[in-house]
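Field: COMPLEX_INPUT
Field: COMPONENT_COUNT = two
Field: RESIDUE_TOTAL = 675
Field: MODE = joint
Values follow.
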Amino acid sequence: MDMLFSLRSGQKPGDGPVPQSSPLEVRDLTVAYNRKPVLWSADYTAPPQGLIAIVGPNGAGKSTFVKACLGLVPSVSGSVKVHGSPLGKRRSLIGYVPQRESVDWDFPASALDVAAMGRYSMIGWCRPVGRAHREAARACLDRVGMADFADRQIGQLSGGQQQRVFLARALAQEARIYFMDEPFAGVDAATERAVIQVLRDLDSAGRTVICVHHDLQTVADYFDHVLLLNTRVVAAGPVGTTLNAETLHRTYGGRLGPADVPGTRKYVAEAGAA
Amino acid sequence: MDSAEILATVTLRAGFNSAVVVAGTACLGIAAGVIGSFMLLRKRAMVSDALSHATLPGIALAFLAATALGMEGRSLPVLLAGALFSGVLGVLAIQAVSRFTRLPEDAAIGAVLSVFFGVGVVLLSHIQTLATGNQAGLKTFILGQTAAMNRNEAMAIAGLALAALTACVLLFKEFRLLCFDPGFAVGQGWPTVRIDLTLMGLTTLVTVIGLQTVGLILIIALLIVPPAAARFWTEKLWAMLVIAAVLGGVSGWLGASLSALVPRLPAGAVIVLVAGALFLFSFLFAPARGVVATAWRQTRLRLAYAEQAALTALLHGRHPPSRRMEGWLKFRGMLNDGALTQPGREAARAAERNRRLWERFLIHYPTLVPGRANWGIDPIDRVLPRDLVLELESFPESLSP
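Field: COMPLEX_OUTPUT
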């Protein structure tokens, strides 16, 4: 892994510390809705490699964290830097997969229309979507196994297919860093496999992927790093060392029962004993 | 009025003035159809209603101000400037109410719409009592009147409507993104507030130039009814815009023609009636989403279910089909002398496989059934991606009931 990283940044191993800025640096980020803070003074520095999961109970500010990083909700305080620069200058580096429920799927658009939206900022103001961009969007649909459904109206797709279309749109952005809000929520097993394959491809292509993830059971299987969030940042780091009974207990408190998350029974039992 | 006269007006042969008015109103209808489509998809249809009602106090105040300054009170630019001012004020008031209070937006719209309109009506009654005596024309702004319109005004309306239309065509991609997923647009760095304001501005423009012809109560119909009717015909945005433009244009054209023939008939009402008739027709007969087409699809679906059940029963030598189903299968060439023909057996096996895969899909992923798929009937290979179909096929038989 060290070698891969060094090769990508054009440095030979042993050249000494490389002043490599993190893909995402969040400092003291606070967000409040109606005077109630949902995210409180969050600090986070994303590692240069590996898939990252944001985990926490409902209402812990996971989506808010992502939206604040993207500038979709105003923050009360704090700063977000993407590859060392303020967000405003790095928009083209950022890809986004919102929650599936955030849009009206009855909208008159085909899967290809939606995927092509990922190209809009490259196309620029007032210009139509040209053939090259449409083909690029079609290739992205193909990567998520949706090429056969390119011309289908989006309302006629299943939940998993709609999620794949959103993923294709993000791929079409050709970003460096991807924020995904619950990409595995309510999808079928085939879609889940297709999505995780795409995420791993992105990771090995040197892209940063940060996912809000609701399923504790699969965190360790799918992700390399974890950010445990409950209004504040509880813990962050590699999954193996960060995700343990103590941190889970601090993140979820009494809300976590073994029945809720069968896969983490071990962690929870330890947490109860501690 | 005889039919020849009607025909002459509708086909623009009843004098240049009337032709210009009719063409101008048609242009207005086209622009309103396109801009209204985006407003409908942005779920802002009612905001444009509030906007149009909020223009009335502006018109009245502009008249009073101009008269007080010794100018001609009924000068159109002055009145429209007033309408623009108070219309924008109304929209800002809605945004302020829904942003700084916990009231839902529809309550804010209702409050602003009625208060502004009430103020306008009071001001108008006050103007009626004044001695200037030149206020008669003001009332035409409420219900619209094409007969009083002159050539230059009609040309100005046409020009502005076409300008608004051009802006809409240029910003097609931006508006589509804004209407579908504003959050994603912000994430990409698009200035959504400015794009939203542009769309709102174009709506305001169409509303204000439509005040004279359609009137402020009914201009909303020209912005909503043609797009809503167009939605029945298509699942494509560009097609929806074209159809809405055509329906809006036809409504404006016919409405203005009829109103020009009968000077006492409010143009707005006639235009809205034409648009309403087109809406009713689309609602009933549009092939994509119309009521008749939907009912027809459901009938065919029921027949397909019955046919499948009968074929499966025959294949396994279970109970024979009903007399009517027997006749139907014979007609389809699937049954001969009480036994399945070769095509009949093939259809039965295909139906059985399809049904089995559908059942597995429904058992394993009950929440994921595609919105408009017909369970068990639509070929599953056409509805689901290939990897998912392969997965369903790989499930052991015991998982099916």
